[in-house]
């Protein structure tokens, strides 16, 4: 850990105390509030007096932090004389032990500590109970002096050292006293990896919103790259479709040339093919369709027959009709009109018991 200031909150009978950790060692210590706290440096770590925090250990559900805190509050309500609404409950984790540490402190005390720190321009990164600075013993109890007060720590206990209370909790066994070097090593380890931080829930440290300009620049360049790639994909797709359209047009032109007479000079294959098709089928609807319509109309009228058929360049068909009566010739004309042709009325002449005349059939 690099240059961390540790502040011991004052108890009613003790002043401010502090120590500074640098290069994983305690480099300095002092009494009173330290001068020259750098507001832009790493935030200090505050230590709460042992006498103001009640510690418990219990196995708690590990599915979510909310479940753990809820279970811890239920345990604290059973073990505390104060209403649970007036208490702040924090849950931690100590290595891989099944029992998890639970810190209980009054809400008003938390507000008082944070206000006192804020008055000195400090927003601590963490707020640790003093007993949690001591190492967890394999068995029995250990003791040390922290911030002017004696602190005792057991495997699942931690409290301020008071003669009668300590004897009652330890069963009369004297706690092992930690040496200075051993205590400082434990403090460095506890600050680097805290087992229980009281700054949870409503007292959690608010993070300042800081713009990561390096990340913003990377995201900007990434956005530009995405836009360039998208544009390149669009250009490639357009080029691909253009080449495919040119290939289809070339193929259509080749097929159109195959439909033109051999030796004909090709200027516009599509237009020349349309002209040839028009010449082959004739004007209007073409000879084939018009002649078929006339033949169909004649066949559908009993006694009528087609004696001559002529096709004009403009698409008109002149059909000579012979019938056993004039009404039959009129029926042929009606059927052609019903098929969508224009058939002007014609004059029919009688000869040898039959009538004959010429109908002009034009496309509508």
Automatic annotation (TrEMBL):
GO terms for biological process: protein secretion by the type II secretion system. Keywords: Cell inner membrane, Cell membrane, Membrane, Protein transport, Transmembrane, Transmembrane helix, Transport. The keyword Transport applies. It holds the Pfam family GspL_C. Its main location: membrane. Residues 48-156 form the GspL cytoplasmic actin-ATPase-like domain. One of its GO terms (cellular component) is type II protein secretion system complex. It is a single-pass membrane protein. This is General secretion pathway protein GspL. It comes from Sphingomonas alpina.
